[in-house]
Amino acid sequence: MTLVLGIESSCDETAAALVTSDRRILAQAIASQEEEHSPYGGVVPEIAARAHAERLAPLIDKVLKEAGKTLADCDAIAATAGPGLIGGVMVGLVTAKALAMASDKPLMAINHLEGHALSPRLADSDLRFPYALLLVSGGHCQILRVQGVGNYQRIATTIDDALGEAFDKTAKILGLGYPGGPAVEKLAREGDAQAVPLPRPLVHSKEPHFSFAGLKSAVLRAHDCGEHSDADIAASFQQAALDCILDRTRRALSGMDAVSALVCAGGVAANQTIRAGLEGLAAEFDLPFTAPPLPLCTDNAAMIAWAGLERLNAGFAADPLELKARPRWPLDPDAEPARGAGVKA
Ligand code: KG4
Ligand code: ZN
């Protein structure tokens, strides 16, 4: 049995977790910064970095004590080394380096997206490579063929906004606060998903890429015209987003080499309507569908510890103490940029 300490600090959650190779989360703690950022309607990088610096060490201490373990019991220290807000990533990575050095344990520098990509295997021991992954978070919207640990083929990406960003902006327009995804989902339950005509950007286009900027602008117009209830706008937005996801993922699956399952991960994978839609889509392709339990969808340290365990198990070497934090770090460095990418509405 192998034990890894995981550290996550790439956005607005400070998190630590102890996870074993037989898929047990011995202890985990997450300190959310919702209160600090909500007056600004989004994450303020400087505030985030300071909050991580204050909270991380006591959080690590807490999970070790809760599990009755010390650093000497850990086989490696895994920390997010990017992509993300650089100040926060540096706090987590430098802490992990110091702990690794002091305890003479290997440092595993984890790509945050790899944490999300492998998180479904922490919850589901039957999930085998290769699988099709829809990775939908606040910063990313991608379809990947997950071929093995450290081996990701990017099939599609967004040419403008990420899906979580579209949820957050819709929430802001409707005055629902930050983070917006769960609030939009809740309000959508009271609305009519067909009430507001909204566009489905890129639906039916040949390449399976995503675009959400036009949808966001249409939500703003629908709100400003004053003819619709907030609940109808939320429900219609969520339906339009789902229609885009289903069409784009269907397109990607049609052109993809064989996979064992359709998987959804990242913060937006917590959305029940989106999970249900994807389950139906997987059935069209005779594939099982899986998504991690809700606490493993949004940012957490268990997925970072798990990615460290997967890397150890796959024979990856420890990372050097001089390793740099990376604000950008694509999972598939060979993927071509999507046509039209970077054009924000
Ligand atoms: O993975 P995550 O915690 O952080 C990033 O790596 O970005 O994802 C956060 C994103 C936010 O945009 C949040 O609004 C969205 O996930 N989200 C949701 C739900 N829960 C979180 N979006 C839709 N429905 C939800 N229930
Ligand atoms: Zn994330």
TrEMBL record:
EC number assigned by the record: 2.3.1.234
Keyword set, alphabetical order: Acyltransferase, Cytoplasm, Iron, Metal-binding, Transferase, tRNA processing
Binding-site positions, Fe cation: H112, H116, D299
Role: Required for the formation of a threonylcarbamoyl group on adenosine at position 37 (t(6)A37) in tRNAs that read codons beginning with adenine. Is involved in the transfer of the threonylcarbamoyl moiety of threonylcarbamoyl-AMP (TC-AMP) to the N6 group of A37, together with TsaE and TsaB. TsaD likely plays a direct catalytic role in this reaction.
Domain Gcp-like residues, every copy: 25-306
Record protein name field: tRNA N6-adenosine threonylcarbamoyltransferase
InterPro entries in the cross-refs: ATPase_NBD, Gcp-like_dom, KAE1/TsaD, TsaD
Record-level GO cellular component terms: cytoplasm
Cofactor binding notes: Binds 1 Fe(2+) ion per subunit.
UniProt catalytic activity: L-threonylcarbamoyladenylate + adenosine(37) in tRNA = N(6)-L-threonylcarbamoyladenosine(37) in tRNA + AMP + H(+)
PANTHER family: TRNA N6-ADENOSINE THREONYLCARBAMOYLTRANSFERASE (PTHR11735), TRNA N6-ADENOSINE THREONYLCARBAMOYLTRANSFERASE, MITOCHONDRIAL (PTHR11735:SF6)
Class of enzymatic activity (EC top level): transferase
GO biological process: tRNA threonylcarbamoyladenosine modification
Record's keyword annotation contains Transmembrane helix: no
Chief place where the protein resides: cytoplasm
Cofactor: Fe(2+)
